[in-house]
Each structure stands twice: as C-alpha cells, then as structure tokens.
Amino acid sequence: MVVAGAVVFLVAVGLVLVMVVRPSSASPSPAGSGASAPSEGSADVGFARDMSIHHQQAVEMAFIVRDRTDDEDVRRFAYDIINTQANQRGMMLGWLEIWDRPKSSDRPPMEWMGHTFTPRPDGSLMPGMATDEQMDRLRAAEGRAAEVLFLRLMTVHHRAGADMAQAAAGAAGTDEIRNLATGMDRAQESEIALMADMLKARGAQP
Known about the structure:
- The protein is an all-alpha fold.
- It is built from 8 helices and no strands.
- The protein has helices at 2-21, 23-26, 29-32, 43-66, 72-98, 132-140, 143-171, 175-201.
C-alpha cells in the first residue's frame, strides 16, 4: 500500500513539474505569443474556475482526515492530495490572472461543458462535491470511520473531477489547460484505483 501510494504521488508530482517547467507554463501562450487570451465563456476559463473550487474542497477534506487518523497510509495519501491539488489550483488561478479573467463569476458551474449545474442548498456546488452534512460528519469522525468516509467521499469527488478534466482536455484552446487536464485525469483515475484498494483493506466498499 505504501509503495502504491508513493507511485501515485510521484506520478502526480511529475505531472505538476511538467506543467511548471514546460515553456508554455512558464510563459502562457496568450502572454508570450501575441495570441488573445481565452474568452470569458471558453472551456479554458470555465475549467480553471470550476476546478479551482473543486480542488479547494478536496484539499479541505484531506486536511480534515489528516488530523482525524493516525493511519500512515491515509495520512500520506491526504498529504499527497494537499500538495498536488493546492499546486494545481495555484496554477489555474495564476492563469486566470494572466488572462485578465475574474477568479469568480456569476456564470453557472459547468456551463463551459455544454450544460449547467445548479449549486444545491445542501452545500454541494458541483458534481462530486461533498455536502455540508457530509463535511460535518467527516470532521466528527475518528480513526477507521474517518478513513472510510474520507476515501468514499474522495472517490466520488475524483470521479467527477476526472469527468471534468476529460472534457477540458478535449475542449480547451490552450496548451496549459489541455496538458494539465490530461495529466489530472490520469492521476485521479490512478488515485481512484488506489482508494478502492485502501477501502478493501479496511473491509469497506467505495
């Protein structure tokens, strides 16, 4: 389990590093090539905004479980999510800044995917996101109960995130978003498989 977690972490870190060191990331094409920045309604801008919010909750859940269990495998996995997704979120917010696009918008979530999602009164802002009640349950849980709840919530979270990343990889007009979304999809699919194994080891189902 430790080895599997380490492999997933190395893959995720490698994807982040590729995005950081690629020339297109250091000097995004709209700023460095004279090309216009992605439009307000583009998949690039919509994905960067929506996935930043999606990632923010994943990082929050990872911080919570890190402090609710002593299990080293779960704590290591949570640490991986915190670092990888916080870095990716920073890149996406940075690109919005470079493109001179607001980091928040009144536009409905998922509109860039060709359909919209109405945020729910229960606190779920987008598909896969945990509700306020689920977040409260995670904060109140301890030990194995916290581990299982976290892994189940994060599996659902990752599945929706992977769907969003797949859509962005196919619809984006910039290398920055295409490359990040493609890598994100691969990493989250790998982590979904890892979480299934972690749940099985704890006698639980996804």
